[in-house]
Each structure stands twice: as structure tokens, then as C-alpha cells.
Please model this.
Amino acid sequence: MPWVEITVLAIGALAVSLVVLRRRERQARRRLRMLAEIAAASHPTHSLEQTCDAICDVLVPEFADFCMIDLIGEDRVPRRAAVRVGPGSGPDVERGLAARAPSTPEGLREGRDPSPAPRFYERASDEDLRGLAHDKDGDLEFLRSLGLRSAITVALQARGGVAGALTLGVAWSGRRYRREDAHFASILSGRVALALDNAGLFAGLEKAERARAEIGETLQRGLLPPPLPRIPGWSIAAMYKPAGAENEVGGDFYDVFRVPGGWMLAVGDVTGRGARAASITAIARYTLRTAAVFTDDPLGALRALNRALLAHGDSALCSLATITLGDDHAQPARLVVAGHPPPLLVDGEAVSEMGEGIEPGPILGAFEKAEWRIEHTQIEPGQQLVIVTDGIAEARGASERFGEARMRAELSGAANSVLALQRLEIALRAFTERPLEDDVAAMAIGPDSQAGLHSPPGKIDPVERGMIERLFESFNHRDEDSIVELCDDSMEFFPAATAEAAGREAPYKGRTGLRDYLADIADVWEDLQIAMDVAEVCGERVLVRGRVYVRSRELGIRNVPVAWIWAIRSGHFTRGTVFPDPDQAVAAFASGKPAQGAS
Model:
């Protein structure tokens, strides 16, 4: 052969070899890129389902016309987790593949083979399709409609076990898988299995974190102060706000509960912050409740709590002020103070310490043989007894602390328990320019003569009373349909606290407005409950006195008396006005004029 021809053939062979090498190099780079993209699919922010979808996006149409990922759960039952179909298929292909039962390698369900071999169809025949079909009619026809040329199914193995299978197929693109493709699919399966295993770990960690958060939230809810009970003849208001936004409970607390022959009211402050303080708060509240009920003795209850805190160890200290009220209003209240700021007596413009000049007893949890004393006091009509934790006086402003002098000035002239705490809360919010550094709890109590009622409590028309009870119950259950059914189309209502928190200035009007109001409540408050105590009717107007319990992470808890004036016509509520100051409602009702401008 002439040397020229030999040279030409050699150059031609070299060129072909270079083309093949370049094609293989490009293919190798594409496949390395696919492996890298699959590894990146298991991002910590992705769920297991999102990771499956991301893997399918990498493989189709780059390496397959369609792919399916089947996963096996703890019950060993496989499920189709993801399906992807590339361009060029019929409209029903993806839906049909998703509807088919998982197609896993033989023995995978039972776990008989810890390392099942890939299932590879290089040239898929009709006999192969018959073997794959779940029945000889519909499913077989569906597989034939795909025009399947080649298919590979490989097991997904991670942590020494089989977690599922990956199925890849080529059909309408005209491609065909070779042995090297099946080998790459085996390599691919390891990377896919690792990505899914990581995603499962992330999902498991996320699930565990959600479970921990749910447990923590449930425990916190159990430690939150419950709605205050109604104590006949007394008006009680309470507020609570923990420091920071991450917790709803902390080291301050208030409580009101029944004891033999009366009621005990308590405001306390325990050492520490966060979870530790919350755990000591739980000990303090529930020990005090149990001991007070069983001993019927405020001093016996404090001794029991002191022993419990000493047994707890770890410097579990608690300052506390308790007031015990008898069912007989002529009986003086019994006051005990243990290392706590003394209660303040508001009498018109004068504000003084209750039992001024008397040293409070030692803090609880510090000394084994500590002793306390009971102070007997009478709270006269028009007077308010206010108990606060030191978080109010110690609150920081721009250049100074809130201080006791400012606190007394704000309380001066407060005519009832609601106004006393309302003034403190508004002043504290205006004074502090930063989040509270310490928890805050406060309670105010004063005699409630129910002056202004024209008839004995509860002596109203049973039908109207039933309407009010149904409205309040429907509201507490957020039964939107029942509320709308009870209200007239012209209904107008303006609850100032919710409107202010929601940034609303206009009243809620009509049934659409009522639905907007319920939506605002859901956005603003974690919880809002109302309760009716007494009511009276005068013509079409009804005065209702009761309580509201409202809670949010930002504002904490308010638990205060409140009053409403409702207008009822033809069996429907036509207007509602809420009064944060019940005395204002009584005056407006007694005047006989329509209530205007109340907030």
C-alpha cells in the first residue's frame, strides 16, 4: 500500500479516535456534573419530596426520557415518591406512570436481598413488557404506548439497607441504553441514595425539632395564667408580660384560686430567666395552690412552698405577696409578703404602701426556719390594692428607670382596678424604648358594688339573655356562621384594642365587617376569650358586665373586667360598644343615651 494512502488512513483513524474521545470526555463531564447536582439536591431547607423532585429534574431529560423514584418506609411498603417525564411524551404519560404501583427489583419489598442486582433492559421487547405489566390488559397497553426502548431499575442503598429504587427509561427520544449506561446508573444510584438519606435525616431533624417546639409550647401553655374567676363583690384586673419574644412564660406570675371560705390572690417573682425560671414558677404556683387549699392557712401555704424550693436546690428563690379574701366581705383581707415589694393602696389621689413601716418577711427558698406574719386590712369602696413585681419599677427608659415614684404618680386617682393597670401598662409602654429586661406581672383589686344597675343581676328576659350567651359562646369558639346569624346587616362594632393592634380606625360594619373582625383577631392575638357576669336590659339596650382574657407574644396577657352595651332589635344585634372601663359603661347606660365614642 502506498505510503500516502497509509498516512491518510492513519490520519482518518486518529480523527475518528479524537471525535470519540471528545464525545466521551463531554459525556464524562456531563455525568460528573449530574452527580454533583444530585449531591446538591439534599439541601437542609428541602423536604424529602423536594429532594426527590430536584433529583428528577437533574436526570430528565439529560439522562432519561422519564424517571421514577420509589421509596420504602418502615412498614416495608414501597410508595412512588416522584415521577418526571421529559418533553416529547404524550399528555397522559406522567399521570399514568404516577398511578402505577412501584416497580422495585425482585425481593426488595421483603428485604430478602440486601444488594439486589440492577434490572436492565437494553432492547425492551414485548415479552419484557409483559413481564413488567401488572395486568395483561390496561397496564400492558399503557407500557406499549410508551414506545419503550431501554430501561434500568437500580436499588437505592444507604446505611447498609435498601431504601427504594430508581427507574430510568428512554423511549420517544430515540436513545438506547448500553452496558456502560447501566454501570453509570449503578454509580448514580449511590449518589441518589445518599442525597435522599441526607434529606431524610434533615426531615427527621426538622420533624424532631417541630416535635420539641410543640412540646415546649404545650408546656408553656400549661404554665400560662388562666382566665381569672369571677369573685362576687370584687373587681380584679391582671397583666403579665415576659421579657423577650421567644418565651411566653418566665419568672413572674399571678394566680387567683378558691380556698376554703374564700379566695387567695398571689403575685410572685422567681429567680432566673427562661426555662429554668418557668420550672420554678410551676413549683411555686402549684405548691402554693395545693398547700393553701389543704391547710386553709396562708402561713402554712408559704411554709410548704419554702420547703419545696429548698428541696429543689440550685438557689430556687421566690418573692411573693398573697391576699386572702373571705366570702364575707365584712371580714378583713389577710395579707402576707415574702421578700416582695409591698402592695400599694390607691385611695383617690393618695398612694401608699399597705402596712407601711412593716418589714416584709424573708424571700422564699432561702432559709429553713423563716417566719412570716399576716397583716389584716380592710379594702374600702373606692380603694384599689395594687401588687406588682419589680420588673415595672426596674424597667429602663432612654436615660433612667421607671421607678416607684413614677409608678405611684400613674396610679394616683385610678378609680377602679381596670384603670389602675391600664395606666401602668400605657405608661410603661411609652417609657420603655427597648424590650423589657425583666418579666412584669401586676394585679389590682377593689370592691365592686355594681352600682348603677337598675335591677338585680341576671333579671333580664330569658330570650335576650340566651342571645347574649349564644353570642359570647360563638365568639369564644370563633363560630363565624353563628355570629353572623345573630347580627343584623347594619351591625356596627368597634373593639379598640383589636382595631388598634390591627391598624384599623373605622368601625367594623355589617356581616362582612364581623368576618373582618374575626380575621383580625386571628392575626393579632394568640387567644381572646370573653365571659359574661351580669346583665340588665332597658328597652332595646342591654348592659353586659364581664371579663376579657387576651394573650399575644408581643403584648403578653391582659385579664380585666370589661363591659358592653348592645342594641337588640327584632331578635338581632344591631350595635355593640365595648368599654374597657366598666364604670363608664354603667354611666352611659344609666344616662339612657346611645353610647358614642367609647373605645
